[in-house]
């Protein structure tokens, strides 16, 4: 079972440059959360701060009852054992085959015998669909396979928290779809707490329980998936709708007058063209046959009830 992460008033700067400030959110135990935001908003910095690789200027991060911002390095080392991290490129050692890459954390951080290491490595490779590729080098496989190998390596220490730094970067849409389903299946199997940083809106609509959005050095919103997908907040609608009209510009923030003019021009016709993404893109559920924790049943029931209510409202409006 995953652990809850409580972030309160977190602020991170590099010199005089404020990356984000006063960020507060709770990542629920065992759930999948996604952090969105335009390029340069500090999403990867947020991941590194959560795992203790970067120190914030202010605020707290409580994991398993401990504020990790106050811990010394040797204490942080113990807390980091709760984490598994999938980096953008998989971060594999080019001179090692996949088996040795995935076994590396076990050999580095445990005293398990090689027989036990082999059992664990093959189990994790099976979970991500890599059985039979043990002897391949990272340079001999596709980007999608490298991502899955990196994910298997992140799983070998049985972490309670898994961080994904843009897992879909460099992948074509088909491989992204497979990876999304793999993430959902893994979460149902191990029930760890997942946080995914991504730019992929389709993934954000389908995969998580919760969504957050960083913009203008602040956390604009964080909450249940349904709340963000139906939000009227201009920056949220612009980002999730992938449109030019709104507060987000090409290279910098737009001034308030320009944003107001664009949104006025967009008008009701453009709003009508933006679909109810919750209805059109239901949340991915685990593959049939994978045992689902009770919360998955609750999520499925909640979304079915929401669709039923929407249907009833539609019929009432037609009457």
Strand and helix map with partners:
Blueprint lengths: L4 E10 L2 E11 L4 E5 L6 H8 L7 E6 L2 E2 L5 H7 L3 E4 L11 H12 L4 H14 L15 H13 L5 E5 L7 H18 L2 E5 L3 H6 L3 E6 L2 E7 H5 L4 H8 L14 H18 L3 H4 L13 H25 L1
Parallel strand pairs: 3-8, 3-9, 6-7, 7-8
Antiparallel strand pairs: 1-2, 1-4, 4-5, 9-10
Helix pairs in contact: 3-4, 3-5, 4-5
Overall description:
The structure is a single chain. This protein is α/β, with parallel strands linked by helices and 319 residues long. It has helices at 43-50, 73-79, 98-109, 114-127, 143-155, 173-190, 201-206, 225-229, 234-241, 256-273, 277-280, 294-318, and strands at residues 5-14, 17-27, 32-36, 58-63, 66-67, 83-86, 161-165, 193-197, 210-215, 218-224. The longest helix has 25 residues, at 294-318. The model is unreliable at 272-280 (pLDDT under 50). It has one domain (5-233, 272-277): P-loop containing nucleotide triphosphate hydrolases (Rossmann fold, 3-Layer(aba) Sandwich). The protein has a six-stranded mixed beta sheet with strand order 6-7-8-3-9-10. The chain has a four-stranded antiparallel beta sheet with strand order 2-1-4-5, covered by helices on one side. 43% of the residues lie in helices and 19% in strands. Helix 3 (98-109) packs across helix 4 and helix 4 crosses helix 5 (143-155). It contains twelve helices and ten strands.
């Amino acid at each position: 079972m995953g652990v809850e992460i409580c972030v309160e008033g977190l602020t991170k700067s590099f010199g005089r440059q404020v990356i984000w400030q006063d960020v507060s959110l709770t990542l629920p135990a065992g759930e999948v959360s996604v952090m969105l935001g335009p390029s340069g908003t500090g999403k990867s910095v947020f991941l590194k701060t959560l795992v203790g690789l970067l120190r914030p200027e202010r605020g707290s991060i409580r994991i398993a009852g401990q504020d990790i911002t106050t811990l010394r390095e040797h204490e942080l080392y113990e807390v980091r054992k709760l984490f598994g991290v999938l980096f953008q490129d998989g971060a594999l050692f080019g001179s090692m085959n996949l088996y040795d890459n995935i076994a590396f954390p076990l050999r580095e951080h445990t005293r398990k015998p090689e027989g036990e290491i082999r059992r664990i490595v093959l189990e994790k490779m099976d979970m991500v669909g890599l059985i039979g590729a043990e002897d391949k080098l990272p340079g001999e496989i596709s980007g999608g396979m490298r991502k899955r190998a990196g994910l298997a390596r992140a799983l070998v220490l049985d972490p309670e928290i898994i961080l994904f730094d843009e897992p879909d970067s460099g992948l074509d849409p088909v491989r992204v779809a497979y990876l999304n389903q793999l993430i959902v299946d893994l979460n149902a199997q191990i029930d760890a707490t997942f946080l995914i940083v991504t730019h992929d809106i389709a993934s954000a609509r389908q995969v998580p329980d919760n969504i957050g959005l960083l913009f203008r050095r602040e956390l604009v919103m964080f909450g249940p998936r349904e709340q963000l997908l139906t939000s009227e907040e201009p920056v949220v609608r612009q980002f999730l709708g992938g449109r030019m009209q709104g507060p987000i510009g090409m290279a910098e923030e737009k001034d308030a007058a320009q944003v107001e003019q664009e949104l006025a021009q967009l008008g009701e016709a453009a709003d009508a063209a933006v679909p109810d993404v919750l209805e059109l893109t239901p949340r991915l559920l685990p593959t049939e046959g994978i045992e689902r924790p009770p919360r998955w049943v609750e999520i499925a029931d909640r979304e079915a009830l929401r669709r039923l209510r929407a249907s009833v409202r539609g019929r009432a409006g037609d009457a």
